[in-house]
Amino acid sequence: MQTIDSNAFSTCTGLVKVDLSNCTSLITLSDCFPYCYSLTTIVFPSSLQIIEKNAFSTCTGLVKVDLSNCISLITLSDCFIKCSKLTTVIIPPSLQTIGNYTFAFCARLTNIDFSKCISLTSLGKGCFYQCYSLTQIIIPGSVITINSGAFESCTSLNKVTFLGNTIPSLSSKSFFPIAQPSTAYYQSSVTNLSYLKSFNFFTYYIPLNSYYYPVYPPYLQPTSSLGSGSRISGSISLGSRPKIGGISRIYNYYHFIHKENEFLNNIVFQIYSKK
Fold this sequence. Notes:
The chain is mostly beta strands and 275 residues long. Strands 2-4-6-8-10-12 form a 6-stranded parallel beta sheet, with no helix packed on it. It has a 4-stranded parallel beta sheet with strand order 11-13-14-15, with no helix packed on it. The longest helix is centred in the last third of the chain and has 5 residues. The protein is globular and about 50 Å long.
């Protein structure tokens, strides 16, 4: 079999499993299994190169999609939109494009890794739109463009790692809104970091393979200077922020060194009120 016609299995609400592993000449899947609400298992052929145009849209029973056998896969586009129970996607290194709205509205998606896709150049418009459960992502160095809304409304996304020596081309909603606080990790060799910072997507910007003291939010500024690599004690002014528990000033904090590849919210503070 070389092709599957458009809407061939649309709204087959009792369909549970699709095994295409023997379809060794099948190259493209497009608009063929939408609204198969009970579909839980898909076995893909190694020949597959393109999955697009609502191929599995609104297959609300899908929990895991394993594309690792698709060694020639180059394009995913608009194909798993509204798979509301989808949590895990395994992607082969051959992938070159994640197109518009590929995983949009996959609200439970937590695990997708395309960091080894060294030929991936583009993340399409809204490709992870409203993936509320996505917490971290690694952008390979090959990516040139992250289009508008690629990670828009990924409200749990708090860690994004850029592996390239250049920050990709962005738009005002490439990462907006996402979790706050959030952290962007980047190569120390990046030359256009100011470009990334100009969008104000992230709270912290930390170079890879380094130790770093994060910048304090404006409402939590230390009144004493931070010494390099040492434990600091001092006072913190809450400025114009509302009082917390009736205390307008917090004393005796200790700030411990933070390694770049750990989450910022693992930083430990010991805080006591003045006696």
